[in-house]
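User: I've been going back and forth on whether these two constructs are worth ordering. Before I decide, could you fold them both?

Assistant: Sure. I'll take them in the order you sent them. The first construct and its structure tokens:
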Amino acid sequence: MKENTCQRVLDFLEIIRRLRAPDGCPWDREQTHESLKSYTIEEAYELIEAIESGQDSLIKEELGDVFLQIALHCQIASERGAFDFGDVVEKISQKMIYRHPHVFGDKKVFSAREVEQNWAKLKKKEKNSDSALDGIPAVLPALLTAHRMSERASKVGFDWPDIASIFDKIEEEWQEVQEAYEEGNFQETREELGDLLFVIINLIRRLDGNAEEVMRETTHKFSRRFREMEKILSETHQTIGDLNSGEMDALWEKVKRRENR
């Protein structure tokens, strides 16, 4: 199985080399690290959708598309003598061994929490970083960035002592939002809303969730219910705009009840 897998990887890398060859595909030959950025991001999101679908066939397909992006980047780098696929595999292998001394060395750990803390220490030492927040990509979605920052901070001890204290902080931040709004200071209101959202993201993290995933689930739910409202109204040749606020609320509740049966 191992030799068969290795051969299939080599065969695929040869396909990529052939596509990039002078007599290969014009589109593939034109690609650069820069031009592939948006495709790499798009494929990663499509993989997330496939995982959420729970369909192995889709997950397999989207993993292949992500691997295609990796192979293309490696081939482009290889052509200018920077690195190749083998170098990438070797680098990540070394990193995994270095950051798992409890598996490949003699360090003892007794919980996943200890593993995370040790990982953070080793990563900081390895990268010679000045801050626990270093290394978070600037292009991450804002909710995911906030999650990662709060997660990093918690690993070095900067966190609320318990869930109850986070709820207290949410109440405090909500009060500050209301006060800023009542004073007519809309810039401060925005800032206070940001602070409130950041605390909520921390609460989600402490409840073993991820704000990006929670919000995606919520938007999917809203889209599903809103579309069902539109479908119901279309049967009587109406639109959302034809309803008053009370009728909208009633229809929304009707859709929710249908969904929860």
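The second construct, handled the same way:
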Amino acid sequence: MAKPNFSFVCGEDDFLVGRRAREIYQEMSKDVEDPSFGCEIVVGSAGNLAEVEKAVNQFTSAIQCIPLFGDRKVVWFKGITFLADSRTGRAQGTLDQVESMRRVLESLDPEAVSVILSASPVDRRRSFPRWCAKNADYHLADSRKPADREAHLRDLIKRESERFGIDIPFSLVNILMGKLSGNARLAVEEVRKLATYLGDEPVEVTEELLNQLVPNFGEGDFFEPVEAFFSLKLEWALDALRRYFFNTKDSRQLLTLLQNRNRLMIQLKVLLMSGQIRQGPRSIDKASMDRAAALHAEAYAGENGKSSFNVFSQHPWYLSRLAEPLGRLTLKELVDFQKEFMRGFREILGRPNEQLEVMREMVVRCLSR
């Protein structure tokens, strides 16, 4: 099979795309005798057609301008934005420029010029990305699919942890991912922060240390109190509530998240108790989930999207997280939790200025067992 003329890196997260492309660029550049002449980076960010034309012209010139003494050249067309499903990306002038770029790439001599293109986001329905997938050294840095994005982020945390020489257990990686709201850039920085804090001491990364050092980002503001509640640890749950209400005054969204998770846990508990699904060493067994989903398809008719009303709409990896405390909870206790959440909703309507107190009382009733 012929060697591809160029490398193409794309994905939804510009940080992951840029990171992977830089790794390839550095690998290609290490044997270049004079990097100041033999290595060139062209910025591909463009907000209108004029900027697209300018970027493509610079890229074409960089490829055609060979070093004086005939050494191999490396060109990185970095951060291309005009391959997205955007007004600029759909313009006919942009499509013409992309077609011109494709012809240049087809005529490349990979022995003389090594080329990397990195682009985010990319409309992969269009002809150029599809052509790249078939003809380039193609790298998909991440994906729109939640399960794939989780896998990419988990792998990134694992690789960063290994690079810094720290060990983050599988269960704590789940917590860290929840705190980061899926942000890859934050994942790298928070792992580096953990490594800096631990230093050379053989200190184990614990749940308490993770909560102490890593803040909640974005929607992660709701993550800690929900995790704390279902850890069944009363002290942590009350501390998490205090931190939550330091910045937030309304508890209704938090109650909704508690109800949604508990609703899934009730369904999961019944399926596990009845033996209809099995829990593997890392996640819920997908084969048993598929069989149970087919068996109960009629009961879930109309619930096609991801929903807390349909346990089969959830990814097995996520369900494995929810299953962790189920061995310490009876089905009756889970149902009682749901009743308490409903009671909490009613009480905050009557005591809107005492929501922290209402939530504290609810948590104490649930977890003082």
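Notes on the second construct follow. The longest helix spans residues 252-273. Strands lie at 7-10, 39-43, 73-80, 113-119, 137-140.
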